Structure formats: C-alpha cells, structure tokens
Amino acid sequence: AQKITQTQPGMFVQEKEAVTLDCTYDTSDQSYGLFWYKQPSSGEMIFLIYQGSYDEQNATEGRYSLNFQKARKSANLVISASQLGDSAMYFCAMREGENSSASKIIFGSGTRLSIRP
Amino acid sequence: DSGVTQTPKHLITATGQRVTLRCSPRSGDLSVYWYQQSLDQGLQFLIQYYNGEERAKGNILERFSAQQFPDLHSELNLSSLELGDSALYFCASSVGSSGGAEEQFFGPGTRLTVL
Known about the structure:
The structure holds 2 protein chains of 2 kinds. Chain A is mainly β. Chain A has strands at about 5, 10-15, 20, 25, 30-40, 45-50, 60, 65-70, 75-80, 90-95, 105, 110-115. Chain A contains no helices and 12 strands. The model of chain B has no long low-confidence stretch (mean pLDDT about 90).
C-alpha cells in the first residue's frame, strides 16, 4: 500500500540557515509524482515543488529544491537561506500514476518548521 | 489567492444534520479534489472528479457524497453528522491533463464544527 512518512514532527532552525525536511514514500507503482506543500498558520495550502518519478534531475523552485533519491524512496525538501516567513507546517504528498485525470493522493503527517530570528 | 473558491468559510451544525460544501475550481481546471484535515487524522484525500465524472476515491465515508456539475463546480454533501466529522475541508483543482507536473490549487477551506 502506498504510504508517505515524515519522521520530523517539529524542527527549529536559525534564520538564514538551510534546512532539510525528510520524506520517505512507499509505492509499488513505477509512475508517480511527489509534492511538497506549505501550510502557514492562516490555514491555506500552498504548492511548493513537484518531482515526477521519471524526472532525472532534482526539481528546484527558487529557494526550494527536492532531493530525490529514487532507490531509497526519499524526497526530501531543502530550503536554502531560511526566512521567518518559512515558519509553517510542511506536507509531503504522493500521487500514484502519471495520468492525473485519475489520481489518488496521500499526504504525510507533516513537519512543523519554526524559524528563529 | 489560488483562484479556487469555497463556501461557506465556517459552518456550525449539530450531530445528525446534513450540510453541503461548495467549491468553484479555477477557470479552466477540469479536476476537483476534496480533502479532510482533522487533528487526529491529518490531511486525508476524499475524492476526485474530472470533468463531471468520479475518477479516484480515497477515505470517504458512505455518509459523504460528492458531485461535479456541468459548470465544473463541485459539492460535498455530509450527512448524519458526527462529532468526529468536525474538520477543515479543502477543495483543490487542477488542469487535469494527463502526464507531467500537476499542481493542485487549494481553496481556503471550509471549517466545519459539529456540536
């Protein structure tokens, strides 16, 4: 069965430092997509980054990068030069299948990131 | 602003009642997803519609049902409500085309409180 595991319930990081949020997944599908979302205290869900299972290069979006290690089934989110506004809950998610017209998506339990000034 | 709208923002009701949550996807998006976020269960995928048809089902209770209308807006119906149904219900939409990155845009959510 597909599963997403985020082992860090909470993290504290000093402002301007880089931070890595861990995510491991389990699936028997060959084709899948991995996502990271940010949920600030206001409650909205904000898309950060996407990695497809067949993408050979790690995804990057500004200060966000996804460290994709397919053999280890891990998809860690790296935030460079953290800012106070990065304090939020972060969710890793997986969609099985590349055909997004029929997609079941599962989320991890989340990591609460707190940035210290 | 993601372009996805959800109404109402807050809903307070009693056990045993029935409620309807409404979602309008971003213009041009064909897929609509419903999620439930509660403290004990985390973020759970409920169901997905694509261009009016149900395409994927997650942990949706039999007391819950959804549909997507020809104008692509969607409604989530929750009946025989229980205290444990209190949660934040998100709707998300995506273009829905096959292949490639498929970012989902989330609405602001409807907070349901069952008393």
